[in-house]
């Protein structure tokens, strides 16, 4: 709906109403007027399903996050409850996932000693992000658990705290000094270098980790909804020759579904890899 110019509004309310109109123009919401309306950002703020108004309120996305965690626990329980020297297919699949993190991330970046120390948290981050991401293409779930800022932010904070812990543990006295005052830089230059290091090392890192994961999942969901909503509109509402356009949008939707699987895995890997890189920088010899 558009704002009635004759309605008396206070300044804050008017700004909110104008912003809502702008969003409505850019990302139209679904109505029953017979016209096509694309996906809205409001999909990431669904209404409550259970315990409305309480601190334990559960929305659709919260439920998806619970399902992803339950599936993750079930997979690892089923894959490790009867370990064998000659693994079966399911155990082999779980071990392949664990080896991906251990060999290609932990050992490769941190070495055997530090890799073993931080392997549990790196493995947890990888599989949690992966399972939260993959719900975006599972029928009847159709949204990633990482598509709201809570989960990416918590994981970024965990990564950030681990990075700080690793640096302080390795060099309690010199970690912050070496991070903010790199060796070999003339003292006058520290006036410029130190603020840059403070912002890039201790502020930008958790922000970029959060936003990279969040934005990829949000955009992926909006694209999939757009293509499949267009298919439904062309085939079932317009019909006739427009069904050919529906076939095209369906093909694009299926192609982007495969692409979204790749993005889900890649974002889990990148998040874990960057966490390992930050830890490696924290435990470097100059610290």
TrEMBL record:
Keyword entries, A-Z: ATP synthesis, Cell membrane, CF(0), Hydrogen ion transport, Ion transport, Membrane, Transmembrane, Transmembrane helix, Transport
Gene: atpB
Transmembrane segments: 58-79, 118-141, 147-168, 209-229, 241-259, 265-284
Principal cellular location given in the protein's record: membrane
Similarity comment: Belongs to the ATPase A chain family.
Protein's name in the database: ATP synthase subunit a
NCBIfam families: ATP_synt_6_or_A
Annotated source species: Agromyces tropicus
Transmembrane keyword on record: yes
Compartmental location: Cell membrane; Membrane
Role of this protein: Key component of the proton channel; it plays a direct role in the translocation of protons across the membrane.
Gene3D superfamilies: ATP synthase, F0 complex, subunit A
Pfam families per the UniProt record, alphabetical: ATP-synt_A
InterPro entries the UniProt entry points to: ATP_synth_F0_asu, ATP_synth_F0_asu_bact/mt, F0_ATP_A_sf
Organism superkingdom: Bacteria
Topological category with respect to the lipid bilayer: Multi-pass membrane protein
PANTHER family: ATP SYNTHASE SUBUNIT A (PTHR11410)
């Amino acid at each position: 709906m558009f704002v009635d110019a004759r309605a008396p509004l206070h300044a804050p309310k008017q700004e909110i109403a104008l912003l809502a109109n702008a969003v409505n123009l850019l990302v139209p919401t679904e109505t029953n007027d017979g016209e096509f309306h694309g996906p809205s950002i409001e999909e990431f703020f669904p209404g409550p399903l259970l315990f409305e108004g309480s601190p334990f309120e559960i929305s659709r996305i919260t439920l998806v996050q619970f399902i992803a965690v339950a599936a993750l626990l079930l997979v690892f329980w089923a894959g490790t409850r009867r370990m064998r020297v000659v693994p079966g297919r399911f155990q082999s699949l779980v071990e392949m996932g664990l080896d991906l993190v251990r060999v290609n991330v932990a050992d490769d970046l941190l070495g055997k000693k530090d890799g073993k120390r931080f392997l549990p948290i790196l493995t947890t981050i990888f599989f949690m992000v992966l399972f939260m991401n993959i719900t975006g293409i599972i029928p009847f779930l159709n949204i990633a658990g990482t598509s709201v800022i809570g989960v990416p932010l918590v994981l970024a904070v965990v990564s950030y705290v681990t990075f700080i812990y690793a640096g302080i543990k390795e060099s309690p006295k010199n970690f912050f000094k070496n991070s903010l005052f790199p060796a070999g830089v003339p003292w006058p230059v520290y006036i410029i270098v130190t603020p840059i290091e403070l912002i890039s090392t201790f502020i930008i890192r958790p922000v970029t980790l959060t936003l990279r994961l969040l934005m990829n999942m949000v955009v992926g969901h909006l694209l999939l909804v757009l293509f499949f909503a267009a298919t439904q509109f062309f085939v079932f509402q317009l019909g006739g020759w427009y069904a050919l356009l529906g076939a095209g949008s369906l093909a694009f939707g299926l192609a982007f579904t495969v692409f979204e699987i790749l993005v889900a895995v890649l974002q889990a890997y990148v998040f874990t890899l960057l966490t390992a890189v930050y830890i490696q920088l924290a435990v470097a010899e100059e610290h």
